[in-house]
Structure formats: structure tokens, C-alpha cells
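hey can u check if this looks right to u? its 194 residues, i copy pasted from the old doc so theres a chance i mangled smth
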Amino acid sequence: MLIKRIAAVCFLLSLPMITFAAVPDTFCKETYALCIKAPCKPIVTRNSDGSYSVKEANCLCVVETGWSMGPGSCESRKPVHQDGHTYLISTYSNFFNKTNMTLTCPSEETVWAWCYGSPCVVDEKDPSKSTCTCPVKTSKMQTLGGDCRKAECKTIWSAATPANNAFANNEFYKYMKEHHLPANPPAKDCPAPR
């Protein structure tokens, strides 16, 4: 069972970027990492030619229990306890949609982290937090992080493309409503800067 979970995580990491529309989403009631407003720190690597690059980031996500949508089966997304650590997968829910607004960073040069389906480890000292290792992308993005401050677009946040963000918000809300489960509507956009 553990080997299947590790294989699933390795498979997810090998994909260039899972999009919500490309992989069927499974809705599960579980413990999961929620990263849609997570600040991230780049993981710097040195290439064989001596140059430096950032292909991944560590993002500080929260651990939630409840409904979420994500790639893979509910069984493959269950937390794994191994060698004194708890590992889980970052999935999506609209848990923060009532308390946070959507910050849009319109520049195609915006650097952000795509945490959907990424592997995470729960903080040993604070089990309400987890660190997720997420691939870094460069494009327009939307996040619930940054407190509506445009200057935060220069910081790495866990985010999604505008299309993926809209799909996730709408799909999650629709599923929850259809199944008579509590759901927050899509998050409101941050006000335009003055």
C-alpha cells in the first residue's frame, strides 16, 4: 500500500503541470494540505554548467480536514505516517473563499508555485501546518495570498492560472451544492488599486 502511495507521488511529480481539466478530480472527505494562499520560498539548485535555477519551492500550507478535490483516488490521498513524519497531498477546497480575496498578478513574468497534487510533510511542532514542495511556474496567476497588495506579485505564492482558478472555484462549489454540502462561493476579486 505504501509503495503504491509513493509511486503515485512520484508520478505526480513527473508531470509538467497537472491542470484541473486534464485529470479527473476526485472529491474526498479527508485530511489534506490547502495551499491556495501559501507563501513560498524558492529551492535553489546549481546546474552542471554552474548556473543557478529555481524549479521548485517550499510552500507553507495549512492542514485541513473536510471535503477537497484533487488528483487520484481518496485512498491514494490518505495521510501516510512514516519514520515519525506525516505525509499528505495538497488538494483544493474553497475553505478560505469567505475570508480572503483573489489577488490577480497579470504579468506573464510572475513567478508562482503550482501546489495542486504536490507532496507535503506535516510540521511536527504544529500539525495545523505543512510544507509542500511545489513546481515553480512563470505566467499570469491568481492566489488568495498577498492580502490584495499588488507588490506581493513579486513574492512566490501558491497559485493557479486564472483559467484553473476559475475552474477549481466553480467546480468545487457546483459539486458541493449538488451534494447538499456546505460550500463557500468563489472568492471575490481584490479591489482595483487606487
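The chain has a mean pLDDT of 88.
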